[in-house]
């Protein structure tokens, strides 16, 4: 079991323990009782709780926590591929690898850590990875929990002097919702999207907020910096802020698809919604020595008013 230092600083608010597979997991907490848990398996955020201890991320009751498959739920790091359109496993290999804690990460700007509990993780390619994907990179992830319970994930991909390479990236985020038929998404109105259920046909969203009555799998391209997911029944709004992530993937498998999915209950589509901050429509290309940064900022607001009534500027959006 990890230890708590006497002084409250970001290292003090960290506890490192092992899960039942013997894989390290990092527990972050803040002084108001909010917490987050990150597994070194996949660099996956497996829990994010508010100061009342309510779990804000979805995890399937049928999830299998067994290396190398990613646990069904939480926030998964999809890199260097998204979807099954390339030569790698679906969503790439990063979520199936064991990461390490990065004790001396290259500095990030202060807003990343001021008054926050945070941990830095690092993934470098193994020889086996390089056979699959012959590029030399360092993938870093900082997960930080703010005093108000907001969760920020900052990913950095650096090309370590290999030839230029291109990749896709997504924070594959399973939000916990009360009842998908009571949920709406605001901020994506009138945008163009690729419909992944219709061979990525390019369509345009109508003017209203998005509600759910059937399977949905869409990549909204060039989406705004902020998207909101309003859960009326729970009186909760998730505000999703993005930097360096031009696309937003919205996915709910609905009833029929759920019955075909591994590690997922037949009815679980009712209590989850994936809204992924992503860079997946167009690959990101890095020359030797170049670095890309993608940042996801999640906040859970006790409200279900319509989007523009929320005091978002107080959240820095
Ligand atoms: O979220 C978009 C998506 O690519 C869907 O098409 C669906 O295949 C899902 O991801 C699969 O995610 P999973 O967590 O099962 O790997």
From TrEMBL:
Residues bound to substrate: 72, 90, 95
Protein keywords: Isomerase
PANTHER family per UniProt: APOSPORY-ASSOCIATED PROTEIN C-RELATED (PTHR11122), GLUCOSE-6-PHOSPHATE 1-EPIMERASE (PTHR11122:SF52)
GO annotations of cellular component type: cytoplasm
Catalytic reaction(s) noted: alpha-D-glucose 6-phosphate = beta-D-glucose 6-phosphate
Similarity annotation: Belongs to the glucose-6-phosphate 1-epimerase family.
Pfam families: Aldose_epim
Protein's name in the database: glucose-6-phosphate 1-epimerase
GO molecular function: carbohydrate binding; glucose-6-phosphate 1-epimerase activity
EC number: 5.1.3.15
InterPro entries recorded: Aldose_1/G6P_1-epimerase, G6P_1-epimerase, Gal_mutarotase_sf_dom, GH-type_carb-bd
Species of provenance: Brassica napus (Rape)
Gene Ontology BP annotations: carbohydrate metabolic process
Lineage: superkingdom: Eukaryota
């Amino acid at each position: 079991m990890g230890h708590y230092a006497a002084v409250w600083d970001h290292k003090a608010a960290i506890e490192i323990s092992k899960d039942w597979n013997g894989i390290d997991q990092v527990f972050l907490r803040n002084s108001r009782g909010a917490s987050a848990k990150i597994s070194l398996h996949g660099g996956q955020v497996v829990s994010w709780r508010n100061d009342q201890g309510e779990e804000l991320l979805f995890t399937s009751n049928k999830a299998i926590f067994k290396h190398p498959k990613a646990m069904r739920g939480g926030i998964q790091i999809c890199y260097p591929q998204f979807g099954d359109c390339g030569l790698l496993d679906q969503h790439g290999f990063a979520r199936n690898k064991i990461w390490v804690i990065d004790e001396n990460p290259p500095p990030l700007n202060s807003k990343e850590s001021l008054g926050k509990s945070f941990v830095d993780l690092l993934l470098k390619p193994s020889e086996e990875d390089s056979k699959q994907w012959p590029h030399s990179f360092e993938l870093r992830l900082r997960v930080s929990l703010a005093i108000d319970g907001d969760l920020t994930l900052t990913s950095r991909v650096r090309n370590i002097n290999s030839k230029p390479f291109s990749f896709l990236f997504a924070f594959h985020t399973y939000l916990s919702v009360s009842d998908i038929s009571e949920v709406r998404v605001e901020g994506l109105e009138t945008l163009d999207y690729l419909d992944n259920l219709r061979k990525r046909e390019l369509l345009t969203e109508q003017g209203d907020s998005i509600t759910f009555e059937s399977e949905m799998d869409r990549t909204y391209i060039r989406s705004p910096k902020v998207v909101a997911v309003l859960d009326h029944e729970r009186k909760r709004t998730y505000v999703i802020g993005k930097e360096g992530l031009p696309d937003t993937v919205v996915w709910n498998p609905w009833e029929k698809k759920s019955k075909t999915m591994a590690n997922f209950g037949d009815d679980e589509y009712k209590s989850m919604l994936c809204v992924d901050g992503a860079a997946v429509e167009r690959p990101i290309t890095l020359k030797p020595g170049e670095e890309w940064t993608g940042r996801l900022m999640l906040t859970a607001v006790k409200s279900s008013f319509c989007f523009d009534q929320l005091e978002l500027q107080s959240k820095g959006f």
